[in-house]
Write a structure and sequence with these properties.
The structure holds two protein chains of two kinds.
Chain A lengths: L10 E5 L8 E6 L2 E7 L5 E5 L13 E2 L3 E3 L6 E3 L5 E3 L20 E3 L2 E4 L19 E2 L3 E3 L3 H8 L17 E8 L2 E7 L4 E12 L2 E9 L7 H21 L32 E13 L2 E8 L12 E5 L5 E5 L10 E6 L7 H8 L5 E5 L13 E7 L3 H13 L4 E7 L8 H6 L3 E6 L3 H12 L6 E7 L1 H13 L7 E5 L12 E5 L4 E5 L5 H7 L17 E6 L2 E2 L7 H6 L2 E3 L4 E2 L3 E4 L2
Parallel strand pairs in A: 23-24, 23-26, 24-25, 26-27, 28-34
Antiparallel strand pairs in A: 1-10, 2-3, 3-4, 5-6, 6-7, 7-8, 9-10, 11-16, 12-16, 13-14, 14-15, 15-16, 17-18, 17-22, 18-21, 19-20, 19-22, 28-29, 30-32, 30-34, 31-33
Chain B lengths: L9 H5 L3 E5 L9 E5 L2 E7 L5 E6 L9 E3 L1 E4 L2 E4 L20 E10 L3 H8 L5 H4 L16 E4 L6 E10 L10 E11 L2 E8 L2 E16 L2 E10 L6 H20 L6 E2 L12 H13 L5 E2 L9
Parallel strand pairs in B: 15-16
Antiparallel strand pairs in B: 1-7, 2-3, 3-4, 4-5, 6-7, 8-14, 9-10, 10-11, 11-12, 12-13, 13-14
The chains are: A alpha+beta, B alpha+beta.
Bound molecules: FE2/S2 (inorganic) cluster and fe (ii) ion (FE2).
The site of FE2/S2 (inorganic) cluster (FES) has 8 residues of chain A, from loops.
């Protein structure tokens, strides 16, 4: 037979039935160790069985239904794309986007799970298995190379279920379907039955025989059939392993299995964000004046995200808007965002509401997280004002899934103004709605929520500027350390002053430039060819942060907290300027 | 896997002292057989109770085995296959009169000595691998600490380490923030000093002495020098036995078994700076045994 490149084929690596919920199965293909797990949404992940951190086998980890958790240091990896979503040693930081495990192609057919090098290849099509119920028989590991095993399998003999226990003559014929399978058919007067043996090339000297029987016996005859084949297969295995000393000369099909997406152990994340195209799959009114969108990838998988992350959406008219992802960790095949109609805004929300429709394609950035959620708090208090609930919804779902202690307070004009109100009801946890309050009443409620402070508590506040300011002040009064109060503004509502002019020296390149009145530091840097990422350009998101080596920044952002501002060693280049005549930046 | 060509220890490893037996398990006039760096050796005691060691060579059956240098230190017998320094690294604390010095636990682990040392240097695994004892989810944060190579001794130190521990030692009853200092005085030996639960001003010493049987197999010896008037030897040993027994299955499930020295072979974060520094330090010492030297392929097997 002429062998096609083994790597261009898919090979069985597990039986579908092995992938029981919340389990991880280990397998091997062409010497690669694989960890295979099915998420609660049904998606099957085939990953390299090696944590990118310190090499722990991921097959020893915990499948929590949406993420695989490594047993050694608890790094979490997302369903579908294998990105690292959480590093427990650094609870306050979002993992670098480059951190991911190597992922392999996956397909299901004939009750088996298949993998290989190519995303486009499909499992072999075997005539005997089409148009019939099939039964996957127990797999059998054999210490023998593929050609020898195939040869032995062609001599397999068995009786169709109907002919078990009788002595009617049975005719068997074998047919090599492809270089990795053989079909053995047993025929008697009244019945025909086929076993298709797929041979999984585990490594140079070992394979796994995965037999599939067609047609599947009736439920009452299953047991005797299974027993019949188990006996026959055991015999065959003994023969194959005994035959080893008389090595055969057929060379092994050797391939080096390459992952679809190789693993990433870090390194520099590029300056500007990679862009992504998504299609609007669903659009609906999720509350009074709030439209929800579900975005699906035009091709491939969506990059992973963590709770608190946002996307930049590039609108058809050139505007760029940031929207928080509301997804919990179990929703990995769509991005779900919510847009509140702001009649007095810059027109972005109007456009999203009126002119973006199901089926439209949008350019978005990959998710970026400037509002990461710690998962080491004794208690987490989430405080949402209006549409500010969006990142907190993602957080609440994550905390609920991990069984941590949390509470969510939603401030809104009315119950009908709470986005995804129905989702809140399905979350186990303490959720309080505070509706129709005056600013004074809101302040009073916020005061009650933040008092008293207890150690290892963290609070996350997202909403309109004045509400965040009030919550921060009240929390400070109640004794919350600044590091325990996390907040995300929708936008920087404080007035900005860009009338100063100053000198900037770039420590790494040794260059210096002049920033004149009316020009932002970020624009000045970009004009000089420094590629700095940015997102909101309003001093709210923290993306364009730079390290200050010398000089005194004039902070005009709402991102840094009091002590970070006082330290003066970092600044947001989009809005902040210089109090001193000269700044030296680590760029 | 592990069918990699056998590694040669090379001078930096050959010339070191290596632990080969617990002194208390040796009897004068009898020898025990063990392995070190892919060689068979025998260990015994002389009339004065000082250790002796021999290399068992295949070529001379019945002939006089080649004798090896041997010393006693920290409850263990140590030997060398090369030219060892006159003295082994010092642990001055052990000489304090109220200390209890104990060889606590030895177990064979199918992993390289450097992987075992790296595990010992690692605060981040406490809440996951030693849950309820040395750490507890969700208190998983690893605060920043310092790493230094002492310019005089060329020993590697990790300083100002701090971690929340529910039961840091046999004598502790409830959780505390434990202060740790790590010291790597030898490529295969590592020790930590941690605030003593019964006397805040002093430090318990816990050491891991790895006997590298081969490049990817180790005997994991632990030693303690503690100030503890309450616990029995058995209690102290039971605690260390439990901790080591929790590490064994983790270490045996790491791939590759040899420690990759190439930067970027494995993902590291700030809390791994001790591990990163240890890898670099091994590379600088020229250690090529039990590691995948930088620049060689790491096929993950
Ligand atoms: S080895 Fe997997 S988290 Fe560290
Ligand atoms: Fe450990």
């Amino acid at each position: 037979m002429t062998a096609p490149d083994p790597a261009s084929l898919l090979h069985p690596v597990a039986a579908g039935a092995d992938l029981v919920p919340r389990h991880v199965v280990r397998s091997r293909l062409f010497g690669r160790r694989l960890a295979i797990w099915r998420a609660d949404d049904g998606f099957i992940n085939i990953w390299e069985d090696r944590c990118i951190h310190r090499g722990m086998r991921l097959s020893a980890g915990v499948n929590d239904g949406a993420e695989l958790v490594c047993q050694y240091h608890g790094w979490r990896y997302s369903n579908r794309n294998g990105n690292c979503t959480y590093i427990p040693a650094h609870p306050g930081e979002a993992p670098a986007g480059a951190l991911r495990v190597a992922t392999f192609a996956c397909a299901e057919r004939y009750g088996l799970v298949w993998s290989g090098d190519s995303a486009d290849a499909s499992p072999p099509s075997i005539p005997a298995l089409e148009d019939a119920e099939v039964l996957v028989l127990r797999s059998l590991p054999v210490n023998a190379p593929v050609p020898l095993v195939l040869e032995g399998l062609a001599r397999y003999s068995f009786r169709p279920t109907a002919a078990l226990g009788s002595d009617i003559p049975v005719a068997t014929s074998a047919d090599a379907g492809n270089p990795f399978s053989v079909t053995v058919t047993a025929t008697t007067a009244g019945a025909a039955s086929s076993v298709v043996f797929f041979v999984q090339p585990a490594d140079a000297g070992r394979c796994v025989i995965r037999p599939v029987l067609s047609p599947a016996p009736a439920p009452g005859e299953r047991l005797v059939t299974l027993r019949h084949h188990a006996g026959a297969l055991e015999e065959l295995r003994a023969q194959l392993e005994d035959a080893r000393p008389t090595e055969i000369a057929v060379p092994l099909p050797v391939a080096t299995l390459e992952p679809l997406r190789s693993g990433g152990t870090g390194g520099a994340a590029g300056g500007r964000r990679p862009q992504l195209q998504v299609r609007v799959a669903r659009k609906w009114l999720c509350a009074e004046g709030i439209t929800a969108f579900e975005l699906v990838p035009v091709t491939g998988e969506l990059p992973s995200f963590q709770p608190g992350a946002h996307l930049d959406v590039h609108l058809p008219n050139g505007l760029v808007r940031q929207y928080s992802l509301t997804n919990g960790p179990d929703l990995t095949d769509v991005y779900r965002i919510a847009v509140k109609l702001e009649p007095d805004g810059g027109g972005g929300s109007r456009l999203m509401h009126d002119s973006v429709h199901v089926g439209d394609v949008l350019d978005i950035s990959t998710p970026r997280n400037n509002f990461p959620l710690r998962r080491d708090a004794a208690r987490t208090v989430l405080i949402a004002g209006g549409i500010g609930i969006t990142p907190l919804l993602a957080m609440a779902q994550t905390l609920a899934r991990q069984g941590l202690t949390w509470e969510l307070h939603c401030f809104a004009r009315s119950d009908d103004h709470i986005a995804f109100g129905e989702m809140l009801d399905s979350l186990a946890g303490s959720i309080t709605r505070h509706v129709g309050l005056t600013p004074e009443q809101t302040g009073h409620e916020l005061g009650r929520i933040v008092r008293p402070y207890a150690p290892m508590n963290h609070t996350y506040v997202c909403g309109p500027g004045p509400m965040i300011a009030t919550a921060r002040a009240l929390a400070a009064d109640a004794g919350w350390p600044e590091a325990a109060v996390h907040f995300e503004y929708f936008k920087n509502e404080s007035p900005r002053d860009d009338t100063s002019a100053f000198e900037v020296a770039l420590a790494r390149s040794g260059r210096s430039l002049r920033i004149s009145a009316g020009e932002s530091l970020l624009d000045g840097l970009r004009n000089a060819g420094v590629d700095l990422p940015s997102s909101c350009e309003q001093g709210a998101c923290g993306t364009c942060i730079a390290t200050v080596l010398e000089g005194e920044p004039d902070h005009q952002d709402v991102y840094l907290n009091g002590s970070e501002r006082a330290a003066g060693d970092r600044m947001l280049t989009c809005v902040s300027r210089a109090k001193s005549g000269r700044l030296v930046l680590d760029l | 896997m592990d069918a990699t060509a056998p590694q040669e220890p090379g001078p930096p490893i050959l010339d070191l002292w290596h632990p080969v037996a617990i002194l208390a398990e040796l009897t004068a006039g009898e020898t025990i057989r063990t392995r070190l760096l892919d060689r068979d050796i025998a260990v015994g005691l002389d009339g004065e109770g000082a250790p002796l060691a021999w290399l068992i060579t295949g070529e001379a059956p019945g002939g006089a085995p080649e004798s090896l240098p041997a010393i006693a230190a920290y409850e263990f017998a140590w030997t060398s296959l090369g030219t060892p320094p006159a003295e082994i690294f010092a642990i001055p604390e052990c000489d304090e009169p109220d200390r209890r010095n104990l060889a606590t636990f030895s177990v064979g682990v199918h992993v390289s000595a450097p992987r075992a040392v790296e595990n010992f240097l690692d605060l981040g695994h406490f809440p996951y691998v030693h849950a309820g004892i040395l750490g507890q989810v969700p208190r998983t944060e690893v605060a920043d600490y310092r790493v230094e190579v002492d310019p005089e001794t060329n020993e590697l130190w990790a300083l100002d380490c701090e971690f929340f521990q529910p039961q840091a030692a046999a004598a502790s009853t409830d959780g505390q923030m434990s202060q740790y200092t790590y010291r790597v005085p030898h490529p295969y030996c590592v020790m930590l000093y941690k605030s003593c639960p019964t006397d805040e001003s002093r430090f318990d010493v816990i050491a891991l002495f790895c006997q590298a049987l081969s490049a990817d197999r180790v005997l994991f010896h632990t030693f303690m020098s503690v100030i503890d008037e309450v616990s029995s030897d058995e209690q102290i040993r039971a605690f260390q036995t439990l901790v080591s027994a929790q590490d064994k299955p983790i270490l045996e499930n790491q791939t590759p078994r040899l420690l990759p020295l190439e930067v970027g072979a494995e993902a590291s974060v700030r809390s791994d700076r001790a591990s990163v520094a240890y890898r670099r330090w091994l590379g600088d010492l020229g250690v090529g045994y039990g590691v995948i030297p930088a620049g060689l392929p790491d096929d993950g097997s």
